[in-house]
From TrEMBL:
Keyword DNA-binding on entry: no
Location of the HTH araC/xylS-type domain: 214-312
One annotated GO molecular function: sequence-specific DNA binding
PANTHER family from the UniProt entry: ARAC-FAMILY TRANSCRIPTIONAL REGULATOR (PTHR43130), HTH-TYPE TRANSCRIPTIONAL REGULATOR RV1931C (PTHR43130:SF3)
InterPro entries xref list: Class_I_gatase-like, DJ-1/PfpI, Homeodomain-like_sf, HTH_AraC, INH-QAR
One Pfam family hit: DJ-1_PfpI
Organism per entry: Vibrio marinisediminis
Superkingdom to which the source organism belongs: Bacteria
Listed name of the protein: Helix-turn-helix domain-containing protein
Keywords: Transcription, Transcription regulation
Amino acid sequence: MNSNSPRVAILSHADISFFELGCAVELFALPRPEFEHWYQTDIVNLDDRPITTTGSIVMHTQHVDDLERYDMLVVPSWPTQPTSIDNHLRQQITLFAAQNKRILSFCSGAFLLAELGLLEGKQATTHWAFEHKFRQRFPQVNYASNVLYVFDDKLGCSAGSAAGLDLGLAVIREDFGYTIANQVAKRLVVSAHRSGGQAQFVDTPMLQVPNQFSQALDWAKANLTKPIHIDTLASKANMSRRTFDRKFRSSMNITPQEWLIKQRTELAKGLLESEEINIEQLAQKAGFNNAVSMRHHFKRIVGVSPKQYRTQFNSG
């Protein structure tokens, strides 16, 4: 390993989220002998205590007295409720930031950075479910809503869970270039590049009990390429149109028409990733009236145009 390789510290603590920690480890700590230069990464703690995480898994990580030797710090998660911060941890991270070193937060990790005052006047984001709580507690932060990740100078924040992979890949591209970043993405079996401004996707909630309503939605998903009228969906659910609309909004927090558009957009994404067809053909296969309509809704929902999405997915 080259002595000039970036040194990375992944911060572990008593409230660590196992999934976000795993994402950080996969991105920066996994040995990659196929690359001549790669990160030298430690999973560290600053309080020298065993850690019990998700599923009662007990971990022992490397205790360090300070973060001086590291070039980048990753904070995979942090409690979203007000929590006392150990003075030593506070001093070390504040000093790290003052030295203008890069700090990344995954998901709720942004709460720690905000609590330390590092995000004041800066852009930040976190999981969509924590947005209201974050805005209330930290009004001095320029919160970026419904994005995958944001950078503000040396501070990067990602949205929930797997969006940390997108932030990490963006950092890898910056440090080692597109070719290596794309190889890492392929190893992770994720898209090589989702831009930070791309929307956070909230999957349609699963209904608890299969019934005529859920069966109507299953029918719609199987027939997205055909014209689908909301009255037809209501009929298949054995409901009046008014009852169906009310049931849909209470169950899905969205209108039936917008739900159909989002389902067709997801179908278009899959086609863009797997088929080399022109946009007009693709729009038809995804169930849109025409390419103009598809481009409009795709850009509105995904945050990038269909052409940009295809280029990003196929790059490398």
